[in-house]
Amino acid sequence: MNDKYKNIAKQYDRIIEPLIRGLKVIGLEMYPVNHSMTLLDIGCGTGSLLNLYQKYTSKIFGIDLSPSMIKVARDKLGKEINLNVGNATNLEFGADQFDVITCSFILHEVSHTVRLELLKEAKRVLQNNGRILLIDYHTGPIKKIRGVFSKLIITFFEFFAGKEHYKNYREFIKGGGVPLLIQKLGLTIEDQKILSGGNFGIFVLRR
């Protein structure tokens, strides 16, 4: 397996996580969880989002393609948390299994086909009354100086993330981002927050 995060996994929490942690906290506030809920984080990375939810429920699962990121997550969260290396487009879970599914900053970095398959799988394993929490870039409109400045920083990071990554990011933005993507899957936006001058979106979705 080509682990493209092998060289950044140990530095991710120091370089990238401080920039996006506040968004994850807001997401938790938008749709709180309790001890009875079962949660799956798709593309869990170093486990920082699960670390937030770990305070409220012990029934949490994480999946990521990168063995290096999963190793960091295990060191952070402990052995009792269910973390697995796996493909989000072919989840090894039964239907209607999770109360909450989270996915932060994954959709923009994969191809359109993978985005659709990932969300189809998320919808499949989500309970009928469950919710999906998506955090990712938003298409704008970009507002005020803060929005323009944030856009420049985002473009810088995405460009240097690699040719394929940058291509997928641009296609994601041009394709309408999360709102147009979920329309194709029959999901409904129950709540949303657009932040940082139009650059970031946090979406609570239901069937």
Radius of gyration: 16 Å
Which segments are poorly predicted (pLDDT under 50) over 5 or more consecutive residues? none
Please identify which CATH superfamily we are dealing with. Answer: Vaccinia Virus protein VP39
Under the CATH scheme, which architecture would be assigned? 3-Layer(aba) Sandwich
Q: How far is it from the N-terminal to the C-terminal residue, by CA?
A: 34 Å
Number of E-type strands? 7
Helices, by number, come to 8
Strand order of the largest sheet: 3-2-1-4-5-7-6
How much of the sequence lies in strands comes to 15-25%
Q: Which percent range fits the helix content?
A: 40-55%
Mean pLDDT: 94
* H-E string: HHEHEHEEHEHHHEE
The overall number of domains is 1
Using the alpha-carbon principal axes, give the shape.
Answer: globular
CATH topology: Rossmann fold
Structural class label: alpha/beta
CATH C-level category: Alpha Beta
Features:
Rossmann fold, 8 helices, seven-stranded mixed β-sheet, single chain, globular, 7 strands, 207 residues, alpha/beta
Description:
It is a single chain. This protein has helices at residues 9-15, 17-30, 48-53, 67-77, 112-125, 144-160, 163-174, 177-183, and strands at residues 39-42, 60-64, 82-85, 98-104, 126-137, 188-195, 200-206. By secondary structure, the chain is of the alpha/beta class. The chain has a single domain (9-206), classed as 3-Layer(aba) Sandwich (Rossmann fold). The protein has a seven-stranded mixed β-sheet, with helices on both faces. Helix 5 (112-125) links the parallel strand 4 (98-104) and strand 5 (126-137). Helix 6 packs antiparallel against helix 7. The longest helix is centred in the last third of the chain and has 17 residues, at 144-160. It is globular and about 45 Å long. The N and C termini lie far apart (34 Å). The mean pLDDT is 94.
